[in-house]
Amino acid sequence: MPSSHVPASEPPSDNGRPSPPREARITAALIDLADTLVDDFDPAEFLYRVAEHCMDLLDIGDAGVMLAVPEGPLQLVASSSERVRLVELFELDASEGPCYTAYHEAVTVDHAIGPALSLRWPNFNARAHRSGYTSVHATPIRLRGSTIGVLNLFRRVPGPLLRADQDLARALADATAISLLQQTTLDQHRTVRSQLESALTTRTIIEQAKGFLTARHGTDPDASFRRLRAHARHNRLRLVDLSRDIVAGTISLPPPTPRRVRQTPRESLRSESGHE
């Protein structure tokens, strides 16, 4: 594999501590994706983690995961933002685009997105360009010779995905397929089809809960989803179970805490002394 364009030592993060080297993050991601042999495996949460690892490791602006059950249509199951979710839903509705083609032709597709008319996917190209994307790299997720989905990587800066990132995207797609297959061995009565159907069903429930929180608390969809996942993780709940309870009204999340305005030292002294 060609050497990565990311340096071995990462720059300091906002809190002043350096983040782990890219090689260490790659190892951690592959270990995380392999850890599916658990009784309470949540396929929806797993696929959102796939998108998150893509965002962390690759030079991209957004990521999405599409899957399909055998004989069934391709569907979006996880995305890194509301912006890319809408673009990919448009692509599926229009039945055209690089991600759609990558799945149906079982080939990796690179596509530059720009203001000029695209002869191959004109509707997708125009929609993606309006959303701020400059290119997309679509990698099929293949399992035992069959394509079960596609990993979609969108960029917002000029230029295609570098070869090192393309190779890593292929590895992440393979790890996703292997992990889905590995989890089915826990129960001989389970099949790949049932796992994929579960992921597609839970996606609908999660989207309903996200929309409910967005409307109820007046936040944007991305912030609502982050709160939903944070609450599930903190309380060790399955994301789909928490989403189902929120939609049913048996669990309610508190409204988001308003961000405190940081005071200057002079303002703090005035507050402590009781002066307006």
Description:
The chain has 276 residues and is of the alpha+beta class. It has two domains: 22-188, GAF domain (Beta-Lactamase, 2-Layer Sandwich), CATH 3.30.450; 202-248, Arc Repressor Mutant, subunit A, CATH 1.10.10. The chain has helices spanning 22-34, 43-57, 82-94, 98-105, 122-130, 163-184, 192-217, 221-234, 239-248, 265-272, and strands at residues 62-67, 75-79, 109-112, 135-143, 146-155. It has a five-stranded antiparallel beta sheet, sandwiched between helices. The longest helix has 26 residues, at 192-217. It starts with 21 loop residues before the first helix and ends with a helix. It holds the Pfam family ANTAR. This is GAF and ANTAR domain-containing protein.
In short:
With about 280 residues, the chain is an alpha+beta fold.
Outline the fold blueprint.
Layout: H1 22-34, H2 43-57, E1 62-67, E2 75-79, H3 82-94, H4 98-105, E3 109-112, H5 122-130, E4 135-143, E5 146-155, H6 163-184, H7 192-217, H8 221-234, H9 239-248, H10 265-272
Antiparallel strand pairs: 1-2, 1-5, 3-4, 4-5
Helix pairs in contact: 1-2, 2-6, 3-5, 7-8, 7-9
Region (Disordered): 1-22, 250-276
Biased composition (Basic and acidic residues): 264-276
Protein name: GAF and ANTAR domain-containing protein
